[in-house]
Amino acid sequence: MLIIVGVVLNMRQERRRAPPEHIYLWNGIGVPKPVYDALRGQEEAQRQYLTQLEKEVFREK
Predict the structure, then answer these.
(1) Please, is 30 exposed, middle or buried when counting C-beta atoms within 10 Å of its C-beta (0-12, 13-18, 19+)?
(2) Domain count across the chain
(3) What's the domain range around 13?
(4) In whole angstroms, what is the distance from residue 45 CA to residue 51 CA?
């Protein structure tokens, strides 16, 4: 929860500094590029973990 609050506060500061062309949309929310990259990386890591977990579960049966 604390991380989300930090990201939102950081996002607000970045939005003031960055021109609109440097804002990326993530699930309909405008975020600066470093935050966007971090969120995409987190999504990809979660997707890979779930795929690996799925393979392990089906391999056991």
Answers:
(1) middle
(2) 1
(3) 2-60
(4) 10
Task: Return per-residue pLDDT of the chain as tens, 61 residues.
Answer: 445 555 655 666 555 555 566 677 777 778 888 888 899 999 999 999 999 999 988 886 6
Instruction: Read off the amino acid at residue 8.
Output: V
H helices present in the chain, as ranges: 2-17, 33-60
**Token representation of residue 3:** 């991380």
Q: Which residue has the tokens 């506060």?
A: 9
Euclidean distance between CA atoms 45 and 39, whole angstroms:
10
pTM: 0.49
CA 25 to chain centre: 11
